Amino acid sequence: MKEIKRDGIYSVQEIAEMFALSPRTVKRLVYSGKLPARKMSNQICFVGEELLRALPAWESHRKVTY
In whole angstroms, what is the distance from residue 7 CA to residue 9 CA? Predict the structure, then answer.
């Protein structure tokens, strides 16, 4: 997994690759309020600092499937 930098800005595709999710799933998590995101130039972007604050809570609720 790629490291998330506090001052980094990430796209939906980058987050999807980091967490082995589809871009569609990442968007669903954003729209459901489970992942913090911002809209910049009509695109969904993620701020590293906001992600790092939200991830511990999100990871504890994430289901692991094999």
Answer: 7
- Domains along the sequence of the chain with CATH: 9-61 (1.10.1660)
Distance from C-alpha of 11 to C-alpha of 65, rounded to nearest angstrom: 25
Q: Contacts for 18-23 with beta carbons within 8 Å, 24 or more apart?
A: none
d(Cα 48, Cα 53) in Å, to the nearest integer?
Answer: 9
Q: What is the pLDDT of residues 12-42, one digit of tens each?
A: 999 999 889 999 999 999 999 989 999 999 9
